[in-house]
Amino acid sequence: MSLSLFSLAGKIALITGSGQGIGLALAEGLSEAGAHVVLNGRDKAKLEAAAKTISAAGRKVSVAAFDVTDQATVEAGVATIEAEIGPIDILINNAGMQKRAPFTEFPVEGWHEVMATNLHSVFYVTQAVTKRMVPRKRGKIISIGSVMSELGRATIIPYTASKGAVKMMTRGLAAELGKHNIQANAIGPGYFTTEINKALIADEAFSAWVSSRTPAGRWGETKELVGAAIFLSSAASDYVNGHLLMVDGGLTAVV
Ligand code: NDP
């Protein structure tokens, strides 16, 4: 057993939604493990600022700004990365959003927006990437699910539906692409202190409930997702396929 099993040296990793939050933490972690990371999001200036910090640490980083909810834009973005940077070895489907409203009042536009960002994007980006991985007979697909891939929760029904679907998409991808030496797995984060949870963090009662509901007794820090992402990106996980790895301080293991 050697630590080189976890090395990502020479690998190219595209991480969607990586200008901030969990995506940025994963980009920093994968680049530290040796990967050339490609940052994605809709705000080019934000991505360039994040890239500056990563390259200042002597690591390889590029920027590919595109909206993951538009299939043609995704295909063009992936084609450009492959032509200008090289073959994508690792894809992390991380871009996501959340909207809250009681189900009976949930606006249909909100439903479509959440589905487009959290689910349709995973189809577009994964298809564009895996059709190029299949002939190369290697690749790692990691999709960011959630504890909501497993649990229901009021007022965020499109979010839970999208994250549940990400879990099942991961299993289907494992079934179809395993024979091409492509592993598709997912990570299920618990509650982490990022922009998506700004309102929840500000709500003291809710924030305390998260800590008491979680066996770890606290919210997660984004750097605590890095180990799982490196494992699922590396040779260490070559016989792990279709798995949803919860990184939630134990939340989904207990009631
Ligand atoms: P943030 O809101 O901080 O980050 C979301 C990222 O997604 C941003 O970088 C945003 O970039 C990007 N993004 C959103 N829409 C698009 C789009 N259409 N095209 C490209 N990029 C897009 O949240 P987190 O970092 O917390 O979330 C990351 C992932 O982790 C999400 O999938 C989320 O559901 C999941 N997750 C988070 C948990 C948490 O507790 N924080 C728990 C469980 C899962 P920009 O707006 O600049 O385009």
Automatic annotation (TrEMBL):
Instruction: Give residue ranges for domain Ketoreductase.
Output: 11-190
Keyword annotations for this protein, in alphabetical order, are: Oxidoreductase
Superkingdom of the source species: Bacteria
Which GO MF terms does the UniProt record name? oxidoreductase activity, acting on the CH-OH group of donors, NAD or NADP as acceptor
**Does the entry feature the keyword Nucleotidyltransferase, yes or no?**
no
**PANTHER family this protein is in?**
2-DEHYDRO-3-DEOXY-D-GLUCONATE 5-DEHYDROGENASE, SHORT-CHAIN DEHYDROGENASES/REDUCTASES FAMILY MEMBER
Family indicated by similarity: Belongs to the short-chain dehydrogenases/reductases (SDR) family.
**Name of the featured protein:** Gluconate 5-dehydrogenase
State the organism named in the record.
Bosea psychrotolerans
